[in-house]
Here is the input.
Amino acid sequence: MQENRVNLSEREIPRQWYNIQADMPNPLKPPLNPGTGKPLQPDDLAPVFPMNLIEQEVATERFIDIPEEVLEKLLLWRPTPLVRAYAMEEYLGTPAKIYYKDESVSPAGSHKPNTAIAQAYYNKVFGIKRLTTETGAGQWGSALSLGCNLFGLECKVYMVRVSYDQKPYRRIMMNMWGANCVPSPSEDTNFGRKVLQEDPNSPGSLGMAISEAIEDAVNSEAARYSLGSVLNHVMLHQTIIGLETQKQFASINEYPDVVIGCVGGGSNFAGIAFPFLRDKIEGKEVELLAVEPTACPTLTRGPFGYDFGDTAQTTPFLPMFSLGHNFMPPPIHAGGLRYHGAAPLVSQLVEDELVKTRAINQLQTYEAGVTWARVQGMIVAPETTHAVAAAIDEALKAKEEGREKTILFNLSGHGVMDLSGYEAYLNGKLTDYSLPEEDVEKSRELLSKHPQP
Amino acid sequence: MQENRVNLSEREIPRQWYNIQADMPNPLKPPLNPGTGKPLQPDDLAPVFPMNLIEQEVATERFIDIPEEVLEKLLLWRPTPLVRAYAMEEYLGTPAKIYYKDESVSPAGSHKPNTAIAQAYYNKVFGIKRLTTETGAGQWGSALSLGCNLFGLECKVYMVRVSYDQKPYRRIMMNMWGANCVPSPSEDTNFGRKVLQEDPNSPGSLGMAISEAIEDAVNSEAARYSLGSVLNHVMLHQTIIGLETQKQFASINEYPDVVIGCVGGGSNFAGIAFPFLRDKIEGKEVELLAVEPTACPTLTRGPFGYDFGDTAQTTPFLPMFSLGHNFMPPPIHAGGLRYHGAAPLVSQLVEDELVKTRAINQLQTYEAGVTWARVQGMIVAPETTHAVAAAIDEALKAKEEGREKTILFNLSGHGVMDLSGYEAYLNGKLTDYSLPEEDVEKSRELLSKHPQP
Here is the structure.
């Protein structure tokens, strides 16, 4: 009988995160103050983030110790299994081996708690009592609620009102972990009150929710803001995914030819890919593939430049691929991939051609998700279907070439709380979206007016 | 660092199920034909179940081989982890060790697929093309959809209409796995049409849905009916849970003092308890504890006698504890525990005082569920909170006694698709239910009119 699962014992869990800033051929460009156009100083961020996380943001040492207190919480579900999808290989009739790293087994159902727990810990030891954040569909809000709960911090989540009303389950999950989740725009901030005064029925937006969460944090000495993707320290915390995977592959004398992850902000991709990217930089042959929706083709079609991280222009200029901070992606169901930019680290590595990119249309991703569920059993998140679709593509290519390729993808989350997209697909109600060239042209124009990296 | 998880390698997965009928001090009483009062013959069941499962129902050999084809599908998620809840032990300040067997990791989120997959397989090799079943909240319907999908059978699920309307996610899950799920009463059966003619807005009931599913199966040569609990072969298929757990404990030189499971029909309890019960019958000191809601106290207060398995009186008389086939339990949120009877095997073992029982009130179970989520991270199913509450009780008793006790419970399912009960609890909207003595008296009267075991 064949073994599907490669388990790592808890004793073997990585004790350090991997910091790719130590190994990048071209170092990251600094974030800029949008007012002065000058590089941001650590102190500029002090009202928003605790200094220990700001230090991690700019750290350049190759490995950073994972605190014992963080490890202890991660061990509630880590190490996660590396699994070989024999059934899918057989279904596709491919000579390729398909492996996935199962990040869906966390209490919140995705990879997000890896950084939520670390961020809650660093804020706690810095003396912070309360974290604020925004959330769209609720994945990040629930992860941060869990992290705060495990370290005894208060957590305030501003949830986009339309999701708050339509997706009550994620909100209840946040309440389970003791968080205070309010619909945004809310009456709790000046910005929220102003929006509500103009439009009492505003459905909210992620940009508005970010503005509320930041305003709340900077106006309170004991509070800070927390972000679930994009930033360097978030990518760092997620590298435990790839570091575990490397140990698991080593235990069976395997190594992947291609490593695949979906990209919204970039954290689950960075988490699985960066440790392998280090090998690549050192000369190892391995391909890293970032997959995004054609509806929001940041890495495949967007320009590389300086842009705001949020719609409301509250963040510094970040050096990244971006469709423009004012870009409004079509309403695809993979909400976590509807981000106009991509993490500066991921962007720089794409710019340097160390990471390959691919955009996949919505129907193909849902088809891949349904096939996965019917062959492997598990229902994956709409975001994760992008990685599944790319893995299937690679396996079919290997079949054509008659090549025994080893494919790895990050199964970043389960989909049992996000079934409505699948329902629409099964009922033939989903459509593909392809971004018109004129929209890409607009983003080029916008970024050309900002400072150039 | 302490290890939380005891993993079993796939090579070590049990190759046989354990059949407790081989070891019971008092053999099971036979099911009776309600018309004649005479023991049922295997052929009587042939229109409802395939003969290979009927043979398993009456088998008395101690071990029954698990077919390779079934093992291969179970390996998609099995063996499941045995986990030590260090964080909860520390939180409670108890000298007890708390272990749980995590059955929530299956694609459907509970232990139910263990038997769904076996039943689909046996029907398939018997030449059956289509299975029918009923489902309330959708746990069993989704598990059988998965099982049928993996073996290429059609699956028709009659889902109680009020749940069909209120809980669309479980229905979509069934569709994901290719099943046809219709609200019951439906236009697809004589019984359903009759009900709808009398009341076009009937909310349906589990009893009605069973009647529709059985009518559909017996009227079609290529179809059979499938049940997710109560029957002997269902208990048999679930014993893989306890058999794996025994191997996992052996690998760390541990053995439980008490084994806990919640009981609705009885299958998750039987699954974890029966292999340990064999040890007990052979003289080992171990306590088996079946936990039920005070709102539906079948084992703790119901009489032991012959009763129908369903409200609509379509089944044979089964020898079991029962609150009466017409008993309507209060609307507690643990829908899977709202069954008027209990599996004949579990009932006989309770009657023989080999299994202890305990009823727990709704508020205590939700309090336990919230505590579990905040300390251990994971959100468990409302049914499972009964086992969690009993495990916490046992751990606190051990603390009082200063005793280093080893506690094991079956974490039968996750709760991320059943959060509304938690929301009601957190908002102070849940109440306790205790069954009035006159209701228990009514069930004694009813069962006294049936044949006596």
Observations:
- The first strand of chain B starts at residue 5 and ends at 6.
